[in-house]
Fold this protein.
Amino acid sequence: MQNQLDQSLAQLLSDYQVLYQKLRNYHWNVTGPLFFGLHAKFEELYLVAAERVDGLAERLAARGMRPPSTLAEQLQLARLQEDPEVPVAEDMVRRLVADFGVLVDHLRSAAKLADEAGDSAAMNLVDGFADEEEQVAWMLRAFLG
């Protein structure tokens, strides 16, 4: 059970690293009438993603594991995909809605693994992230109308 949990936490860390960079890409490149609102929102979200990476890395270290620390390692583990494009603003939001949905599913699975492994700290960490990411996904969907 521990190996599955460690793998799940490492994958989540990697997913958040990909999300972080995607949000930076969108923050730097969003244009059009939605610029001001989305530019600020993307920054808010990438700062949160950076905190998530750190929290997951610290939990892995506390479990005696070395967190994936290079971009190469993280890209190999991540289930989220980079966005090599610069989509229009609404498509940026649509892609993020999909990513946050995937993250919530993986976070809930990790919480279950943590519970089964008796790691309440990891369970609380990822379950809390999932609750917050569900709210972000809802707000982004509401933005789209």
